[in-house]
Amino acid sequence: MVQAVPSVSVTYARTGASTSANELGMRPMQEAAYEKRGEQYLLIKSPPASGKSRALMFIALDKLAHQGCKQAIIVVPERSIGASFHDEPLSRHGFWADWTVTPKWNLCNAPGAENGGKVNAVEAFLGSEDQILVCTHATFRFAVDRLGVEAFDDRLIAVDEFHHVSANPDNKLGLHLGAFIARDRVHIVAMTGSYFRGDADAVLAPEDEAKFDTVTYTYYQQLNGYEYLKQLDIGYFFYAGPYADSLLKVLDPSEKTIVHIPSVNSRESTKDKIREVEHIIEELGDWQGTDPATGFQLVKTPDGRILRIADLVEDDPAKRDRVSAALKDPSQKANRDHVDIIIALGMAKEGFDWIWCEHALTVGYRSSLTEIVQIIGRATRDAPGKLRARFTNLIAEPDAAEDTVIEAVNDTLKAIAASLLMEQVLAPRFEFKPKTPASGPVDGFDYGEGGYDPNGTNIGFNEETGQFQIEIKGLVGPKSKEAQRICQQDLNEVIASFVQDKVALEKGLFDGAHAGGETLSEELTQVRMGKIVKDKYPELSPDDQEAVRQHAVAALNLTQRAKAEINPGGEASSNGNTAFVDGVRKILVDVRELDIDLIDRINPFGEAYAILAKTMSEESLKQVAAVIGAKRVNLTIEEARVLATRALQFKQERRRLPSITSPDAWERRMAEGVAYLQRLQAEAKRG
C-alpha cells in the first residue's frame, strides 16, 4: 500500500495531564478558563476535544449564582452541536452545582423555523424565571433583530465556534456582538477551536477584541497531555484520474476513517456523489447488505473482515437520519467496533464527536483553512489503544491539457498553505526576547544540557506549558499593549494571512533559490510579510509593525527549520516526544547565535517545496512552475517603496545607500527598489 508523505509529523509525550481533573472535576484548560470567570468579556481559544463546552458550564453557573447575570444564552452554529450542552451532573465530580437545561429551552431540539416559533420561544424565555437557553446562531440573530439588544441586558451570551463571527458588515452576528459590546450591559464568553478565520476578515473589530481577556490552550498542550495518542501526521497526496481509483493508496481499511468526498462544484467531483460513494464501497470489498438497526453498509474486505460503513451522503432523508442517529447513539460511544468508516460530504465536521477516528481523509481542497482545522479535529480525540492519528488531503494533480490548470495550481497552493499553518498550530508556543547584556534565565524553563549561557543565545523550554523562550539578537520588542497582545496570542493570525498570500506562496515556492529561481528570502520575510502586517494592523506604529513582523517571521521560520531537523526530506520519523524541542535547539548548534537578520534570510517555503517535489510527479511540478512563471511581475511600485524604506534603514546603519553592484543579493535588491522609484519619478517629470 502506498502511503501519503506526511508534510508534518509530530510526536507527543502522553503525560496524561490534559485529561486529568482537579477536585472540582475540571481538566487543565477548564481550570484556566474558570480562573478568569470574573471577566465580563472572555475569549477561550482551545482545540477540539479540550472540553470547551464543560468549561462554559462551570463559568455560566458561577455568573448566574455570583455575578448578577439573570440568564445564560448558549449560541451554537448548528443544531447538532446543541447536544454538547445537554444536562451534566457536575456535582458528581466535585463541583458545587449541576448543569440543567429545561427541555423546552434547548431550541436545537425544537421543530420549526429559526425565524418563527423559535424567536417567540427566546422572547418567552427572556420573560421567564428559567436560567439557561440553548439555540443556534441563526435563531439568536433573528431574535436580536426582532427584540433589540436591550432585551438581553444583564445576561450572559456564550457564542460557541466563535470563528463564524466576523467584523465584516455583512456578518449579522458580528454586527450584533459589536452592538452588545457598545451597550456594555451583557457578559460574553466566546469559544473557538480554530484560532483564526479562514478568510481575510477579522473576527472582531480591534477596539472590541481589546476588551476581551483571552484563555489560550494550545494544540501542543492538549495533545502532549493525552493518555494514548502519541503521533499526529498531516500530509497531502496528489493523484491522477478519478479519485476513487487512488483512494486505497492512502486509505487503510483497518483504520477508523472519516472520508469527506469533494463538493459537487469542485473539479475533483464526478458530479455524481451517489455513484462516488458506491465506487468507494466497491473498491473496499463486496457489499453484504445494510444493517437493519443502524442503516450502516456492510462490506466484506478481501481478507474476510466485515466493514461497517456509515453513508452520510445518501439523499434519502429517512435513511440518512437513521445513520446519523446511529452514529450519535450514546450507548455506543465507547464501542470502537460500532462503525469503521464514515463517508460524508457536508456533515461530520465541526462539533462531530467520534473519539475512535484515526484518519481524516479529505478529497479536494476545502473552502477555508478553518474548515480543515475542524476536520483535523475529528481525528485528534484521545481514545484507548489509539496511538496515531492522521489527516490526508487528496488533491488532483494539475493537468496541462485541462482548462482548469490555473484552478488546480491554486488548489495545490492552498493545500500547502493549510499544511504550513497546521504545523504552526501544532507546535509549542514561541516567546521571543531581545538578547541584551541584562538577559538572564527565567524560572520554569529548561535551557538544555549546558544550562543558561550569559554570553550566547539561549533557547529555553517549559514542558508543562509547552512554551519556548528564545533570545534573538537585534529583535525589536513590541511597545504598545496591542502589539504585545498580538506577539503573545495572535502570531498564528499573522502567519495565516502570510501563507494564504498568493504572491508570497508563488514566489517562495517556485522562484526561490531552492527551486532555481531569483526571489530572495528577504523579499518574502521583510517586504511581503511587512506589507501584510501593515495592512492587517494599520493602527500600530511603524516600530510595533516591525516588531510583529519579526516575531511572525521568527515563529514561522524556526518551525520550518525544526521540521527539517525532525523529518528530513518530509519522511515521518519515529523520534521521541522531545523531537521538536531538539530540532529547535539544533538550530543553535548550526548557527551559534540567532539574530533577526539570519532569520530573515530563511525562505519560509523552502521545506514545503522539498515535500512538494517528493509528493508530486516531476511533470506536474514543472507544469505548476510554468503556470506561475508565466505571470511573474519583476517589481511592483508597492514592493519598490518597501525596498526603498529598507534601503533608508540600511543607510542609517551603514552610513551609505545600498549599492546596485554589491556582491550581496539583498543589498542589490534594495538598490533596485530605489532605482525603480527614481526612474518612475524621472518619467513622471518628463511626462
Structural notes for this entry:
By secondary structure, the chain is an alpha/beta fold. The protein has a 9-stranded mixed beta sheet with strand order 1-8-15-14-9-13-12-11-10, with helices on both faces. Strands 4-3-5-6-2-7 form a 6-stranded parallel beta sheet, with helices on both faces. Helix 14 (491-499) packs across helix 17, helix 16 (521-536) packs across helix 17 (542-566) and helix 17 (542-566) crosses helix 18. The radius of gyration is 26 Å and the shape is globular. The mean pLDDT is 86.
Structure keywords:
687 residues, alpha/beta, 18 strands, globular
- Termini separation: 66 Å
Biggest β-sheet description: 9 strands, mixed
Q: Which structural category fits the helices and strands?
A: alpha/beta
Mean pLDDT: 86
Strand elements, count: 18
Estimate the helix proportion, in percent: 40-55%
Task: Write a concise synopsis of the structure shown.
With 687 residues, the protein is an alpha/beta fold. Helices cover 40% and strands 14% of the residues.
Outline the fold blueprint:
Layout: E1 6-11, H1 28-34, E2 41-45, H2 52-66, E3 72-76, H3 117-126, E4 132-136, H4 137-147, E5 156-159, H5 172-183, E6 187-192, H6 206-209, E7 213-216, H7 219-224, E8 231-239, H8 243-250, E9 257-260, H9 273-284, E10 286-290, E11 297-300, E12 306-311, H10 317-328, E13 341-344, E14 359-363, H11 369-377, E15 388-396, H12 405-426, E16 429-434, E17 459-462, E18 467-472, H13 481-489, H14 491-499, H15 502-510, H16 521-536, H17 542-566, H18 579-591, H19 596-600, H20 606-615, H21 618-630, H22 637-654, H23 665-686
Parallel strand pairs: 2-6, 2-7, 3-4, 3-5, 5-6, 8-15, 9-13, 9-14, 12-13, 14-15, 16-18
Antiparallel strand pairs: 1-8, 10-11, 11-12, 17-18
